[in-house]
Design goal:
Distance between the termini: 17 Å
Helix content: 40-55%
Strand content: 5-15%
Largest sheet: 6 strands, parallel
Length: 225
């Protein structure tokens, strides 16, 4: 990898520690329909748009309910959870560092507009992003793992995907960024997913990190300051 033309950030599980909150909301929703979501199923939901998750859960429940019934219940569950959303260590410093050093950034999230408003109300620093691609963006035909969300961000920023970093934690999100032609900064301890991605894509396009502060280190290293 080289110094990036831009950095595209996922939100849940990368900047905000919300994945456990979202998993709890889906689990509680499924229980309302007398269904239990295993850890494997919850992992399948990670990184995807709410509507895509709902379609999967409805299929697993395997009963004659409408997707609207499911979404109404899930909305009440998740809204309560998201009021507790907190940033990962180093997230705010990283975004401010990118802005101060004039590295173009964008937020590329599966969260829809209403969900983002809740998260940003308790984390106003998220409004530092001038470019945001949300899950209900009308210009996106398919969510992650489709490359559409990241292709949209690349177009708006007018940058070369080969010189762009995507920061992701989930398989769906990582695949989306890599399929868009970007380089992946994998912020996760899930080695199973990491190895799966390496087998599907070129290893030299993937860099694993354990802390967000490592990104600042790499940017300083490449710039020589």
């Amino acid at each position: 990898m080289e110094f990036p033309d831009a950095i595209l950030f996922d939100l849940d599980g990368v900047l905000l520690d919300t994945e456990p909150l979202l998993a709890n909301a889906w689990n509680e929703t499924a229980k309302e329909f007398n269904h239990y979501l295993s850890n494997e199923k919850l992992l399948e939901l990670k990184g995807r748009r709410r509507i895509d998750c709902a379609q999967k859960v409805l299929k697993w429940i395997n009963k004659d309910y409408s997707i609207q019934e499911l979404l109404v219940i899930q909305k009440s569950k998740v809204n309560k959870q998201l009021s507790n959303a907190k940033p990962f260590k180093g997230a705010i410093d990283l975004i401010k560092f990118c802005i101060n050093t004039k590295v173009p950034i964008a937020l590329v999230t599966s969260s829809h507009n209403e969900s983002f408003k809740i998260k940003s109300s308790v984390n106003p620093w998220l409004n530092l992003f001038e470019t945001k691609i949300l899950g209900d963006d009308k210009f996106i035909s398919a969510g992650k793992p489709s490359p559409d969300p990241y292709l949209r961000a690349l177009k708006l920023l007018d940058v070369d995907p080969n010189k762009t970093w995507v920061v992701e934690d989930s398989y769906a999100g990582s695949k989306s960024g890599l399929k868009a032609g970007c380089n992946l900064i994998f912020f996760s301890k899930d080695l199973k997913v990491l190895h799966k991605l390496i087998n599907e894509f070129k290893q030299d396009r993937i860099q694993k990190i354990n802390e967000l502060s490592e990104i600042i280190y790499y940017l300083k290293l490449f710039k020589g300051f």
